[in-house]
Structures are given as C-alpha cells and as structure tokens.
Amino acid sequence: MKYAFCLLVAASFLSQSCNTNTPAVQQTAAAPSTAPVMAAVNKVLGTYRADFGGSPIYITINYTNGLQVAGFNVHKGLRRNLKGELKEKGEDWELQLKEPGDHEFDGAFTLVFDHDFTKAKGTWEPQNTKSLSKKSLALEKIGQQERTIADGIVYEIYAGDKCDISFEGDGSCEFNFYRMLPDSTFESQMTTARGTWKQQGEKVFVTWQNDQAFGKRDSQFDIKFYSDTAEDGTISKAANEVEGEGYLMGIVF
Questions:
Q1: Average pLDDT for 107-121
Q2: Domain boundary residue among 107, 142, 177?
Q3: Please, which of 48, 60, 166, 211 could form a disulfide with 139 given CB 3.0 to 4.6 Å?
C-alpha cells in the first residue's frame, strides 16, 4: 500500500512539473521572433528626399512605436505632420503615411521601402482631387554627410547686411531680408521667404512657397568656399559664403 501511495504522489509531482514548464518554454521560443522585426523598423528613422512634381520634397521619420511611425514632410517650405503604419511586404516594407487633412494640399503617401530602408518608391494621392493630381515618388535616404558644412556641403546659417538665410537638414530653408529701395536705403519691414532647398555642386536651388510677399517661385544661390591645408598636405574645403538675390552672406559660427 505504501509503495502504491508513493507512486501516486510521484506521478502527481511529475504532472505538475510538466504543466508548469510548458508555458515557459513557449514564451521563450516566441519572444525572439519580434526582435528582428523591431530592428528592421528602427532603420526607417531618418530623412528621405525625392522629386515631387519638379521640386524637392523631404520626408523625415523621427518616431516609431512598434509598427506605428510618425514624422513630417517639407515641400516648398510647407511642413506637414505625418503618421502611419508599416507592413511587411515580402522582403520589403510598405508604409502608409497620412497628412492631417486640414490643409488644401494634404494627402496620403503609399511607399514601399527596400529591406534596408535606403530607398523607396510609391505615390502621393491628394484629398483634393479636383485641382491636384496623383504623383509618383522615388525616395532616397540622405546620409549624415549631407547635413554638414565639411567637404563643401552647405548646411548652416549665413548672414549679411540686412539679411540671413538658413539651410536645414530636413530640407527647409528660410530667407530673411530687407528690400533695398531706389535711394539705396532699406524697407523698414523685414520680408521672410520659406522654401525647400537642394544642393547641386557649388549651387543651391531653392523652391519657395507661392503664398508669400517674396513673389518668386525659385532662386539660385552660389556657394563660395575656403580651403585649408593640413600639415600632411591634405587640402579640405568648406562652405564659407553664399550669394544670391543680390545679397552676400557669410557663415555664422
């Protein structure tokens, strides 16, 4: 009888031990499956540039929470917030991004990113289909080296007599100036123009907002460089001044 009782107790403990361990094994096996997904999603963070109907557009993703992402875009100086969700699409990722919808130029992006989030292709569809049309996009991620003045890349604030201009890493540009009058004096009120910029070689091209006092759709600024020779003979150059619209502006350190 004692022998049978001992066998019954042992069987009971063994059964409880198996039931206790089973969920733990399942949880351990399931947890790592989300890690590669989250690692991939974090790669989407950054700024992307594309042509948007003949002028540059910049899309910046600066927030992720699981598969939810958020950021903003800048086009012709107009900044709009974005939010959406990532979905796996084979080896690529599809991202639906929507603008708030309270502006006449708002719409929605559908973008398909490559596995490493270096490029994307997709479309933008406006909510106002009566006066705006669907556009195709080919995005490319901007490297950090494009957002520094080193090696001749312009990204800083420049100021001159009665003027200043800033080129930001998110693609936005702001030009503040006082207009010169025929008698060589200046207007008492400052004019501010906002736009989106893109550098090509030693020139910077800016596309401006249309609804502003500046009255121009685009401008060209020439970059002036200075060179520096290191002790080992290496020569480097960096942006020193920009000139355009009749103004010369030097870099502000």
A1: 94
A2: 142
A3: 48
Instruction: Please tell me the total count of domains within the chain.
Output: 3
84 and 117, same domain (yes or no): yes
Alpha-carbon distances of 19 from 27, 90, 156, rounded to whole Å: 14, 37, 64
CA distance 154 to 240: 9
Mean pLDDT of 161-188: 92
CATH code where residue 215 lies: 2.40.128
Q: Which domain holds residue 239?
A: 146-251
Same domain, 89 and 103: yes
Token couple for 162 = 């009665």
pLDDT of residue 32: 38
148 alpha-carbon distance from chain centroid: 15
The model carries a pTM of 0.76
3-state secondary structure 39-99: HHHHCCCEEEEEEECCEEEEEEEEEEECCEEEEEEEECCEEEEEEEEEEEECCEEEEEEEC
Structure tokens at 69: 């992402």
